[in-house]
Amino acid sequence: MSTELRSRAWVEVDEAALHGNLLRVRDASGPDCRMLPVVKADAYGLGVARTVAALESAEPWGYGVATVTEGVQLRELGVTRTVLVLTPAPSAMVPRAVSAGLTLSVSSIEAMRRIAREAEASGCDAAIHVEVDTGMGRAGFDWRRASEWGRAVAELTKERVRWEGVFTHFHSADDAESRSVELQGRRFRDAVDLLPRPETGERILHLCNSAGIFRRPELAADLVRPGIFLYGGRAGGGLPTPDTVVSVRARVVLVRDVPMGTSLGYGATYRATRPERWATLGIGYGDGIPRALGNRGHVVMGGRRLPIVGRISMDLTVVDITDAPGAGVDQIATLIGVDDGAGISLEEVSEKAGTNSYEILTGLGRRLPRVWVNDRHSHEQR
Ligand SMILES: *Cc1c(COP(=O)(O)O)cnc(C)c1O
Fold first, then answer.
1. Is 65 in the pocket of ligand 1 (CB under 6 A)?
2. Which end of the chain is less congested by CB atoms within 10 angstroms, N or C?
3. CA 7 to CA 282: how far, in whole Å?
4. Is 232 in the pocket of ligand 1 (CB under 6 A)?
């Protein structure tokens, strides 16, 4: 492994853990259920090329992306499986999507017409999945009016466009208390019952994100769309904990002994409460470490939790190592993830930052190399 990649700060991605989490999704959703790993936003920040290469061995049915550009990127990487674009495509991107053989999700008749026209004009066959809005409100056809739009969609999917699937998205599957998953599931079924039958075969029905899969495996239907769980984020309260996939690490670049009263960082929000030893880490909010962790968060060094002191700067973060006298320059601190059994979970960091694990992962900076490792003990050999 190149030392340059690990010289300052980096994101370590555990491929074995990613695999393990995928197998757990497969176990929960059943052997006959299709898998559509969601790799939007650069695979939640892990790096989409390497993530897809890792997921390929599990032979998923296809991949989910958010945008047409992300879908085209998968084609450029050589992915020949189904690529489903999960958000409504801007009309200007429809030609690109159709020529790349992406499967578009459709939430309006207007979009449906645009796709049908494009397929006709370009002579390309296209496939679509219809999204049904059962309570999410951001996209999808109204579940109450399926008999109206269902007929119109069927009419427009006779020629070059194949109506392959129908799906919905849960708004609160992460919440153990919410009854909304059942409600949305019922609304989805009601809508599907009102749709005209396909002339041949069956349409693929799907509802579940990570939380849905573990909350209500019986709603897995024909396909599941796991995202966060694969990447090591907990899908919701009371749900299984995934294996840790992502660890964020940084080297100590400087150690200093300071007298009591020494001020630290922008705003001088911290002052040494005794003679202290401070370690400066080469990582900051410019790398995606939330500023909210200043004076509140922790890192793990040598299996020990140590407090972050002062405000986090763009490029540097300071830790009080007075109680870990052995710590020195070049030592590795873990800001998120596991280190020698100790750890700082994605959930701890996101709670302290007042956000969720999705935002933390997708916010990890471009400046951090993604370093893939193949078993959870390889970092001990550094
Ligand atoms: C992002 C997304 C998913 C994946 O959700 P997770 O909570 O990360 O498992 C599934 N379906 C749709 C429509 C999405 O936008």
1. no
2. C
3. 9
4. no
Pocket of ligand 1 contains residue 225 by CB under 6 Å:
yes
State the distance between the two ends of the chain, measured CA to CA, in whole angstroms: 9
* 231 flagged as catalytic: no
Q: Note the pLDDT tens digit of each residue in 231-244.
A: 999 999 899 999 99
Please say if 158 is a catalytic residue. no
Structure tokens at 329: 């320059």
363 closest CA partner among 346, 345, 344, 342 = 346
Per-residue DSSP letters for 79-111?
A: --SEEEE-SPPPGGGHHHHHHTTPEEEE-SHHH
304-312 own/partner pairs: CB under 8 Å, 24+ apart? 304/342, 305/342, 305/344, 306/279, 306/333, 309/264, 309/265, 309/270, 309/278, 310/264, 310/265, 310/266, 310/268, 310/269, 310/270, 311/265, 311/266, 311/267, 311/269, 311/270, 312/265, 312/284, 312/285
Other Cβ atoms within 10 Å of 157 Cβ, number: 24
- Mean residue pLDDT of the chain comes to 96
Average pLDDT score over residue span 117-139: 97
* pLDDT number for residue 3: 74
